[in-house]
Inverse folding.
């Protein structure tokens, strides 16, 4: 039992954090808003150079062979930077879905292995559009989309779909409604295998958003602490007032307790993604709660400035609003927990924080659902 | 990251579970805020000590097992799962014990920790005064040095279980010229010393859980001074750190309560008209788990030579508000029966437990530093907001 990150994981996090701090400024995010593609190619390339796209690709396909635990702090940093490019969606969600499919098919479909190699090198990108999300963010920028038809998983090239662009309140997002025709040659999985892939993918997507929401919350609080320190009224910083302090302290408490839930979910997803429903829903619901509180309280701390277009806070706030509702909103995730709590055989009580494995049932992997 | 217990940890859990099964009192003990209940809980502490389960993290020489914090969490999980009696000496074992481990001399540890661990000496806390609550640096109760003794005069208040306890650990002003947090000392005082008067204060449940303590020329040896004379504030802050940080309220307590809440919810599910209750039940269960996960994280960090950071101030707010939510939700589920006192013909164990817990939960956001003080600490020390 060791609930900490190792030095490699922390080092990877630090280098991504440093890079994002320099490359993804509020000014450059606003430049993306005015561009057609919404992508900053230079920033994207430096993330590829750091190994993000290769991270979850197996080593035999030119990747780094890392897992969700290794990547979770990276996702958090992408949230902290309010990174617009769908790096987390492709690296932590779509790529592992392809990896899982390739493993289940034991490499029999050579397209998957080749695509994974191209993903690792940053030459091609893939995103997925599960039925729970009505739109795909940055679908126009992906070479391939993973799309559902019932339980089937289809790998569809960009030129075989029609995209109808939608404008989000968060201009960092580029949403599309996707129309396409399922064909037998695009189907890479069906039946139980397809259902498992979608189930894992839903958990990975919700986990990815939870981690980003945590980073977004902490970033909003940090900006607000700075604002409350600089802004003076009655001859002193507004941050000396308890009413202001407590607004931000409440956000800190929520973020602090979302954190370990997200890390447990990352571990569970890395070990058994189809059985991570409980831990992922816990992570997503708490991170969303923290992000909603931070959005509201941080706007309040900024006063009228917080309601302007000029103030950068809304870059983070709008992202928090949208990521909170993607991959299942609070209602969806709390309902999954609720259903589980009502199961007569649910493992409840202090001895089951990490599932039942430690009670001598060695065959059961750590999971709660 | 490895979230699987080792074989040794699993073995330890089994040992704790078996031992508790064999030793737990057949019937629940009466409240430890009564004479009979306190005596029964004192006996239970002795039983625990005989099994070497008094405080598993302490070194063997002090009656412990030298366990790490993960083992401590496992012990606590089994303890609450089994429904074992509450720890009547929590001021001693969770607060003073760790303080002595860090600041006590070898002789002081030998004298006080062993007696604490064996269940023979029970402790109360003497910090608050009528004029020094949240503003603890306003302490006025004096301890004047006279040779190798201190002479204590003044008053302490809100001392939990001082009516029944044997000793009290105090923060006293040893330098009469000093002010605020300078000139305070951490001194241990026997409650049977001549000149000590303990007056009970009934709590919300009518039982004398609080006391005020009056000191009238009370003499104690300077052997009882912990750390440096005048250096009491830093030691008290460390003690408060244990209180808020890790030890005082282990997550298992809330996980077990939220498990009971889910069971109660299953029983009453079809009678509920207030749809928000469903949401509360889910939140309580999630939050109890989040607290457990956070504690495992902190424990792992400490085992790997990390430190408890200022973020530990978040703990106290989180568990005290969680405890309120759990019990408020339970009261809502019990509806019009929630108010029934244990002495009533219609009362049963379940009703009594929830009502007891509900009353006690009201105190959580107040004791161990009010939640408003905690929010200030988070804002200033964790987030770095300006003090003035």
């Amino acid at each position: 039992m060791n609930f900490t990150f190792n030095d490699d994981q922390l080092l990877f996090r630090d280098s991504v954090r440093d890079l994002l701090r320099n490359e993804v400024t509020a000014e450059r995010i606003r430049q993306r808003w005015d561009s057609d593609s919404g992508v900053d190619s230079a920033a994207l390339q430096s993330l590829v150079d750091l190994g993000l796209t290769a991270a979850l690709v197996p080593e035999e396909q030119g990747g780094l062979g890392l897992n969700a635990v290794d990547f979770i702090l990276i996702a958090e940093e992408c949230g902290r930077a309010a990174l617009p490019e769908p790096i987390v969606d492709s690296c932590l969600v779509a790529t592992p879905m392809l990896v899982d499919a390739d493993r289940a098919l034991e490499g029999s479909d050579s397209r998957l292995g080749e695509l994974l190699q191209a993903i690792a090198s940053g030459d091609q990108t893939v995103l997925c559009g599960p039925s729970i999300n009505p739109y795909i963010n940055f679908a126009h920028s992906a070479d391939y989309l993973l799309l559902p038809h019932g339980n089937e998983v289809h790998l569809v090239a960009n030129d075989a779909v029609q995209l109808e662009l939608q404008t989000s309140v968060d201009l960092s997002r580029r949403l599309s409604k996707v129309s396409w025709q399922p064909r037998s040659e695009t189907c890479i999985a069906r039946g139980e295998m397809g259902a498992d892939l979608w189930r894992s993918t839903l958990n990975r997507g919700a986990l990815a958003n939870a981690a980003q929401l945590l980073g977004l919350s902490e970033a909003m609080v940090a900006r607000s602490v700075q604002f409350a320190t600089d802004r003076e009224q009655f001859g002193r910083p507004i941050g000396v007032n308890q009413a202001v302090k407590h607004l931000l302290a409440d956000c800190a408490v929520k973020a602090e307790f979302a954190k370990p839930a997200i890390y447990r979910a990352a571990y569970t997803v890395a070990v058994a993604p189809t059985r991570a429903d409980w831990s992922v829903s816990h992570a997503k619901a708490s991170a969303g709660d923290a992000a909603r509180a931070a959005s509201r309280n941080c706007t309040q701390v900024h006063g009228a400035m917080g309601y302007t277009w000029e103030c950068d806070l809304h870059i983070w706030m709008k992202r928090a609003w949208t990521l909170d509702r993607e991959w299942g909103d609070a209602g969806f995730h709390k309902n999954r927990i609720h259903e589980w709590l009502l199961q007569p055989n649910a493992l409840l009580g202090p001895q089951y924080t990490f599932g039942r494995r430690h009670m001598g049932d060695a065959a059961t992997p750590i999971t709660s659902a | 990251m490895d979230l699987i217990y080792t074989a040794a940890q699993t073995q330890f859990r089994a040992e704790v579970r078996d031992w508790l099964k064999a030793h737990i009192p057949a019937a629940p003990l009466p409240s430890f805020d009564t004479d009979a209940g306190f005596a029964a809980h004192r006996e239970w502490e002795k039983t625990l000590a005989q099994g070497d389960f008094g405080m598993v993290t302490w070194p063997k020489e002090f009656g412990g097992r030298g366990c790490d914090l993960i083992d401590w969490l496992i012990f606590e999980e089994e303890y609450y799962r089994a429904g074992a009696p509450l720890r009547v000496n929590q001021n001693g074992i969770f607060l003073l014990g760790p303080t002595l481990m860090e600041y006590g001399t070898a002789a002081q540890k030998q004298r006080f920790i062993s007696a604490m661990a064996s269940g023979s000496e029970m402790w109360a806390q003497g910090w608050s005064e009528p004029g020094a609550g949240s503003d603890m640096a306003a302490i006025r109760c004096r301890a004047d040095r006279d040779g190798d003794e201190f002479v204590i005069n003044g008053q302490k208040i809100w001392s939990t279980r001082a009516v029944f306890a044997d000793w009290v650990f105090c923060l006293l002003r040893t330098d009469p010229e000093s002010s605020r947090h300078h000139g305070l000392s951490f001194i241990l005082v026997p409650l049977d010393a001549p000149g000590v008067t303990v007056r009970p204060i009934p709590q919300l449940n009518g039982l004398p859980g609080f006391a005020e303590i009056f000191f009238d020329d009370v003499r104690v040896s300077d052997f009882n001074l912990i750390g440096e004379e005048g250096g009491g504030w830093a030691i008290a802050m460390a003690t408060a750190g244990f209180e808020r940080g890790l030890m005082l309220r282990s997550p298992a307590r809330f996980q077990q309560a939220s498990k009971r809440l889910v069971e109660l919810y299953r029983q009453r599910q079809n009678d509920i008209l207030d749809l928000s209750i469903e949401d509360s039940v889910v939140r309580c269960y999630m939050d109890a788990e989040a607290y457990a996960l956070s504690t495992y994280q902190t424990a792992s960090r400490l085992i790997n030579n990390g430190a408890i950071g200022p973020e530990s101030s978040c703990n106290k707010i989180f568990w005290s508000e969680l405890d309120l939510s759990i019990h408020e939700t339970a009261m809502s589920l019990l509806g019009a029966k929630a108010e029934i006192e244990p002495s009533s013909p219609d009362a049963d164990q379940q009703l009594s437990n929830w009502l007891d817990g509900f009353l006690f939960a009201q105190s959580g956001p107040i004791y161990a530093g009010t939640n408003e003080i905690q929010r200030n600490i988070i804002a200033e020390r964790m987030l770095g907001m300006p003090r003035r």
